[in-house]
Amino acid sequence: MRLIASVLFILLFLTGCTIEKPDPENKEWEISPLFKSGTYTMIGQEGRLGFIYDHSEVTRFYPNKKQKYMWHFWGKAEELQGPLKVTGTSKDTGEQITVLSAATIGEPNNGADAHIPSIMSLPSPGLWRLDAYIGEKIFGSIIVQVQEQKKEVNS
Questions:
Q1: Which of 59, 65, 112, 145 is 20 to 30 A from 128 via CA?
Q2: What is the separation of C-alpha 119 from the centre of its chain, rounded to a whole number of angstroms?
Q3: In the predicted model, what is the mean pLDDT of the chain?
């Protein structure tokens, strides 16, 4: 009886000590909407976070193709303090990768409270959730579609 009580105590203690990971938004895996900020079209959460994106060939994601993207953030000054980390999770495989790490976020730009340029690449086709963390807290999530690699047509 004493052994069972000890085991239960340890299990309760360990359960209480688990670190709760923030729950990213957009669990439905729907591609994030486009919105306007200044003269730019962005993908993300209007008034919260986004990056310049317009479904054109220049901004579209392809597997392992590095592209430039300008991230924008809206929020209180204290929310925008700390290092930025963006992780990517594949809907199809569950694979998780670090997409972007930066020590700090820059000043206001294009109507946002802060911004940062980036180069991003995602490894495989399908839907990917990009979770942006500032400091240790999740700031928001963006769902993007990585296109199949274009096939070359021989003439």
A1: 112
A2: 13
A3: 85
Q: What is the pLDDT of residues 8-54, one digit of tens each?
A: 444 434 444 433 344 444 468 999 999 999 899 999 999 999 999 98
Distance separating alpha carbons of residues 64 and 122, to the nearest angstrom: 6
**61 contacts: CB under 8 Å, gap ≥ 6:** 67, 120, 122, 128, 144, 145, 146, 147
Instruction: Taking the CA atoms of 137, 48, 24 and 60 in sequence, report the sign of the dihedral they define.
Output: negative
Percentages helix, strand, coil for the chain, rounded to the nearest 5? 15, 40, 45
pTM to 2 decimal places: 0.79
Token look-up 């340890």 returns: 10
Tell me the domains of the chain and their CATH numbers.
29-146 (2.60.40.3830)
